[in-house]
Amino acid sequence: MGTFTVCFLLVSVLVIGTSGTSRTRGTKYEPNWDSIDSRPLPEWYDQVKFGIFIHWGVFSVPSFGSEWFWWYWQGKKVQPYVDFMKRNYPPEFKYQDFAPQFTAEFFDPKEWTDIFAASGAKYIVLTTKHHEGFTLWGSKTSWNWNAVDVGPKRDLVEEMASALRANSDLRLGLYHSLFEWFNPLYKLDAANVFKTNYFPTSKTLPELYELIVKYKPELLWSDGDGNAPDTYWNSTGFLAWLYNDSPVRDTVVTNDRWGYNTICHHGGYYTCNDRYQPGHLIKHKWENCMTIDSKSWGYRRNAPLSDYLTIKQLVASLVETVSCGGNLLLNVGPTHEGRISPIFEERLRQMGQWLKVNGEAIYNTTAWRVQKDNGTANVWYTARPQEKAVFAMFLEWPSNGSMILHDPVVKQGVTQVVLVGHGAVQWEPVQPSGLRALLPPPAFMPGQWAWTLRLTGAT
Ligand SMILES: *[C@@H]1O[C@H](CO)[C@@H](O)[C@H](O)[C@H]1NC(C)=O
Ligand SMILES: *[C@@H]1O[C@H](CO)[C@@H](O)[C@H](O)[C@H]1NC(C)=O
Ligand SMILES: *[C@@H]1O[C@H](CO)[C@@H](O)[C@H](O)[C@H]1NC(C)=O
Ligand SMILES: *[C@@H]1O[C@H](CO)[C@@H](O)[C@H](O)[C@H]1NC(C)=O
């Protein structure tokens, strides 16, 4: 315990002053979870708060139901998927036959970059390989099942990475699935109860090393443990290399999906469940990955308008997530032609409009001592301690023109309240504690969907 504390203090001291990097000279991570989990998360990740997830692959061709199309059709044999194929394709049609139709002829990575940047996001996470196994780059270990050999005949990962770096300050994140539903080597290992590891040694790990060395992502979003333990995937061995010796060892961030039972326990930041929204502060850094189409990550041609979350719902998710210490990773599913549909684009641009006004309550903030107001519904707090500012973001504009905040401890003549995007507002204390802020008439609302009161001189 004593030695551990000393080491920990030493590490903490060394970390200060490395501005955004987490690596401490001399720290060598060992291939075990105690050591891997001791690495401080690179600072940039907590500062940026908001990223865009992109689910794109051969599943974008049928674009029916879900990106799990192949599995639902031929693995689980879910009726609507079986019927869809029966009605629309010849009986001998295989999932692989969709790949040539993954054409990406309208894919313009510069245009995508402009849309992502306009959303106010500071990083993206692109699916380089989902559970179907098709790689969006010319992987050496995915023969004839990759975007360079089949379909677009382009290295989509390279094009996205280059355009992002040339045209924005967004950081590149890559998603990668450890397992593949139907890969024969994975199925062989699974039949051997993961006592053999043909699949990770010949497929998963070479791919992971290739992705890191070739594209130098600053975020690696691992997924799909296939119910196999992390020892089968050699996850700690890979992560020790990633943190000690890889070209991105100083800035790379990872998540927690590295083997059965590692989720929410080990790795970098926690994702826990898809659409994770605990509603209270989580001390370990976490991410809420969710999607604009509430029913699917991949593009769905059969999605009705009512399945798309409204911008008001999306802003509310961002506000609640950041208030509770998380980052929001908001997903869009491009079409097989490479288009981000106008409805996704509109939502992203609206998010950017909201952040343009209210971004100071999101970026570079920390959790405050209270997350949710104890009295007025739909009020969430964040803080910037360095500026001694507390932010109260409210999701409903009160019809009587006054907003009561119960938690801040205020002092007349000291506390100042600003409606962000508008200006200073009058306030009065309320009993037993807190304040009533007098808002301007609705015609003077700064923007839509949610608003921010900035408090200084309050604790
Ligand atoms: C696991 O990863 C480590 C570090 O990269 C490597 O030295 C080791 O050989 C790997 N083990 C297996 C079984 O692949
Ligand atoms: C957040 O802080 C970092 C590091 O100080 C800085 O580079 C960045 O510009 C800040 N971002 C915003 C949006 O204020
Ligand atoms: C929350 O409000 C209730 C009264 O509505 C009060 O009894 C309680 O002490 C408050 N809790 C905190 C933490 O302020
Ligand atoms: C005004 O409305 C809010 C909720 O919308 C309520 O909490 C408050 O008590 C109302 N009345 C006054 C005088 O503020």
UniProtKB/TrEMBL annotation:
Protein family membership: Belongs to the glycosyl hydrolase 29 family.
Reactions this protein catalyses: an alpha-L-fucoside + H2O = L-fucose + an alcohol
Swiss-Prot/TrEMBL site (May be important for catalysis) positions: C289
Coiled-coil region(s): none
EC number(s) per entry: 3.2.1.51
PROSITE patterns: ALPHA_L_FUCOSIDASE
Assembly information from the UniProt record: Homotetramer.
Keywords: Glycoprotein, Glycosidase, Hydrolase, Signal
All residue ranges annotated as the Glycoside hydrolase family 29 N-terminal domain in the record: 25-360
Function: Alpha-L-fucosidase is responsible for hydrolyzing the alpha-1,6-linked fucose joined to the reducing-end N-acetylglucosamine of the carbohydrate moieties of glycoproteins.
GO annotation, biological process: fucose metabolic process; glycoside catabolic process
Keyword Glycoprotein: yes
Domain Alpha-L-fucosidase C-terminal stretches: 371-456
Superkingdom assignment: Eukaryota
Protein name: Alpha-L-fucosidase
Top enzyme category: hydrolase
Signal peptide start-end: 1-20
Pfam annotation, one family: Fucosidase_C
GO cellular component: lysosome
Molecular-function GO term, any one: alpha-L-fucosidase activity
